[in-house]
Amino acid sequence: MSQTTFTPPAAARMTPQELRSSMSLAAVIGLRMLGLFMIIPVFTIYARTVPGGDNGTTVGIAIGIYGLVQALFYIPYGWLSDRLGRKPVIAAGLAIFALGSVIAALAHDMNGLILGRAVQGLGAVSSAVIAFVADLTAEANRTKAMAMVGGFIGISYAIAIVSAPPLFDWIGMKGIFLLIAALAVLAIAVVFWVVPDPGAKPVHHKAPFRAVLHHPELLRLNFGVFVLHATQIALFVVIPRALVAAGLPVARHWELYLPVMGVSFVLMVPAIIVAEKRGQMKPVMLGAIALLLVGQVLLATVPHTLWMVATFMLIYFLGFNVLEATQPSLVSKLAPGERKGAAMGVYNTTQSLGYAAGGAGGGWLLAHISGNAVFAACSVLVLAWLAVASTMARPPQRGRSDVAARKI
Length: 408
Description:
It is a single chain. This protein has 15 helices and two strands. By secondary structure, it is mostly helical. It has two domains: 15-201, MFS general substrate transporter like domains (Growth Hormone, Chain: A, Up-down Bundle), CATH 1.20.1250; 205-403, Growth Hormone, Chain: A, CATH 1.20.1250. It has a two-stranded parallel ribbon.
């Protein structure tokens, strides 16, 4: 175990220890999410080869149950980490996640896969990791640290979406599940041997959940992340099968995902700069939500040729990546200092509920109606989000207003 201890300084520039803390904890979440995201592009194809996998509702449950179970355990993990320490709780959660991955790898039918996915969801360590980031960074550097975590998640997502199809062709779904378990074990090693120990045991303060739940801007962001991840997962209930039907074998899906994710990340950068440095967060967010809506409507109404699907996914993921980067930052800015942990806990919980709803709902619609019905339902959700977000107050800007926000 690392013998390094750390007490966050009150500085505007991140110290080497803060950089080490932030990057290593971001790597922990990134390794875990890399494995999780690898499942998304190929699971519905694999399910067809498993007894019970011809039922779209069952497949959707297998995808979504992870998010549902995870949502139930975010707050307990944070609570336990306050009392037992961050490292042992995070390591235990990662070990449970690895166990669930092994169960899924050994499963012979959809019931076994659902069990494995549920056990994976029991390893809901994100809230404890985020709390650990807060322990090891100064208040002035907290947003930078959270941005690193978000960046690692985004990179993990891009790598996973591109690498999953060829990996599926090479080692199969069972091999991917075992690889996920290995990544979780590697993350445990990072926790104990790379992440510094805090200088003092974290003090538990009762989180004022009522104040967080009544905050109108946070409620808008929570609804937004629910819709964002529900539509994302529902999208991948249908898209892999649509690509196969359009003539692109699973092993070659990366040929579509790689340019889509690469171009969307490049195009995202100017939008983030405009949002953060020029104080245009609200119009950028509304534009990104509008892109989600356009992408879903086109997927619902236009025939699915490979070029069309690639174009529509590019539109969708440009909006998705912008929102995935800006929304957590807004949560940290809008929640007063002592309420940041509670706000992120609720945000993460609604994100996981969206994951569960997107998997189960998308699977049911695919099984009972059609793939286009999935995109139509997602379009309605995104339209509702656009209406809700249009009434949001202008978010705090960097500089003076940001300093003022810290004093609340």
